[in-house]
């Protein structure tokens, strides 16, 4: 008596033979060999027996699979999908946490940057002067007027916005790189294609989360105490008390619905696309220079962390120099029409023309650059470091 064992894997109905542990096995008795049988006939019988065993094993496996029940089958399918997409899921989670951590660390500077960008000059509006001048003086004033809550004002909605924004940005960047790699056939993407992947990631993230960004900007300005309350416009004392939902409702109700919530979106996308492209490109380039894969094991954990943080800080600061004017334009458009803060603009081109005419290019388009650089360098450093740390941790947990 002899037997033939078959092992079936989850991805196929049957597979190769010869395994000690099998999903299903079938023993088929072979006919008694007779001494006068011709060798060719013996071979034919062996082939026939093997074929019959294969077919019986396949039918048995299919029957067992169908009798498992729909809930067990669904659970198995769900586990397979999760395993197949584990890297994408890890990237999404790590990207969201990276964004939340990075923005919370620099929340006071983020709010100050917005205030400095949108407030108008005294000459332009006949006021007594700007309420906020200088980084450190403004931070001290913010602390005296509002305390810790002033530093964190708007950070809640910022975290709500940045979680999906950062998650989508990191995830879509990987997706765009994979698509472009398949399309181009290049094992390593060229510089233009890497920049294209970063631009696509930035646009996807902006389009998905822009209303939250606009509402956050409104909340930051409304509670800053610099908005003059007059009948012509601006924020009132009631506006300063509005939360995220209340401000969203007000913008939707008074500024044209969805159109109001997406005011300045295209200018933001135009600015964010090159910024995200440069961020990813410069970070990856610096990392390959300062942290080549073959020497990574030579560094201690503190030195490795410091090198990663330095790469992120340099990438963020360098990218910002090229893209800060787009950020100013975005903020101006987000508060356009509030006459005590900013004039009415007929689109991004008109806004840029008026800003340069009234304030000059460097003073107008680079308003708020200093707090922005102070904010961006640690923010991007923490973002990339947190992303890689969380992603690697999730990957190691999945393997155990």
From TrEMBL:
<keyword id="KW-0472">Membrane</keyword>
<dbReference type="InterPro" id="IPR002167">
    <property type="entry name" value="GDC-like"/>
</dbReference>
<keyword id="KW-0677">Repeat</keyword>
<comment type="similarity">
    <text>Belongs to the mitochondrial carrier (TC 2.A.29) family.</text>
</comment>
<feature type="repeat" description="Solcar">
    <location>
        <begin position="189"/>
        <end position="289"/>
    </location>
</feature>
<keyword id="KW-0813">Transport</keyword>
<keyword id="KW-0812">Transmembrane</keyword>
<keyword id="KW-0496">Mitochondrion</keyword>
<dbReference type="InterPro" id="IPR002067">
    <property type="entry name" value="MCP"/>
</dbReference>
<feature type="repeat" description="Solcar">
    <location>
        <begin position="86"/>
        <end position="179"/>
    </location>
</feature>
<dbReference type="GO" id="GO:0005743">
    <property type="term" value="C:mitochondrial inner membrane"/>
</dbReference>
<dbReference type="InterPro" id="IPR018108">
    <property type="entry name" value="MCP_transmembrane"/>
</dbReference>
<keyword id="KW-1133">Transmembrane helix</keyword>
<dbReference type="InterPro" id="IPR023395">
    <property type="entry name" value="MCP_dom_sf"/>
</dbReference>
<keyword id="KW-0999">Mitochondrion inner membrane</keyword>
<feature type="compositionally biased region" description="Low complexity">
    <location>
        <begin position="1"/>
        <end position="27"/>
    </location>
</feature>
<dbReference type="Pfam" id="PF00153">
    <property type="entry name" value="Mito_carr"/>
</dbReference>
<feature type="region of interest" description="Disordered">
    <location>
        <begin position="1"/>
        <end position="40"/>
    </location>
</feature>
<feature type="repeat" description="Solcar">
    <location>
        <begin position="303"/>
        <end position="393"/>
    </location>
</feature>
<dbReference type="GO" id="GO:0055085">
    <property type="term" value="P:transmembrane transport"/>
</dbReference>
<protein>
    <submittedName>
        <fullName>Solute carrier family 25 (Mitochondrial phosphate transporter), member 23/24/25/41</fullName>
    </submittedName>
</protein>
